[in-house]
Specification:
single chain; about 160 residues; alpha+beta; Aminopeptidase; eight-stranded mixed β-sheet; 8 strands
Length: about 160
């Protein structure tokens, strides 16, 4: 996959050489990494000037997908780059035919709510998503489940 740019962020598919850095960033944030890379498509993000912003993963299950392992590196946090990464990931998911994005979070619900995600019960999640390692073993039962429908503007 080639690079794609949205305002403020350039994203590209992670390469095998990126995985140790991604695993290190996930560990530093206390995010699960036991199933990496597996079926998760990881992406690396940087600013137009070249500075590294962070990482995110997309685990697709047909028309639904999990937004996984979003990490914004500390230097980029003050510049609201997490929002740009989520916008990029929504566009990528839509490009891949995803109509609804799901995620689990223990600490970032207010951030995701500002970006159009809503809290949903776990039993409202498609069965394939609910059967994922993220839902069954990696995230605590106390993690909030959130969802966002992807509209054509998310392309």
């Amino acid at each position: 996959m080639t690079e794609r740019t949205l305002p403020g962020v350039i994203g590209a598919a992670a390469e095998p050489r990126d995985m140790p850095l991604i695993a290190e960033a996930l560990a530093a944030e206390g995010l699960p990494a036991a199933d990496l890379p597996g079926r998760i498509a990881f992406f690396v993000f940087r600013e137009p000037g070249g500075g590294m912003i962070g990482f995110a993963g997309l685990e697709q299950f047909g028309a639904a997908a999990l937004l996984r392992s979003l990490v914004v590196l500390p230097p980029a946090r003050a510049r609201a780059q997490g929002s740009a990464i989520v916008a990029w990931m929504a566009a990528e998911a839509r490009r891949r035919g995803v109509g609804e994005l799901f995620l689990l979070t223990t600490s970032a619900a207010p951030f995701f709510e500002k970006l159009g995600f809503r809290r949903v019960e776990r039993d409202a999640v498609p069965p394939a998503v609910a059967a994922s390692a993220e839902f069954t073993t990696l995230c605590p039962a106390s993690a909030l489940c959130m969802a966002r429908r992807l509209e054509p503007r998310d392309r």
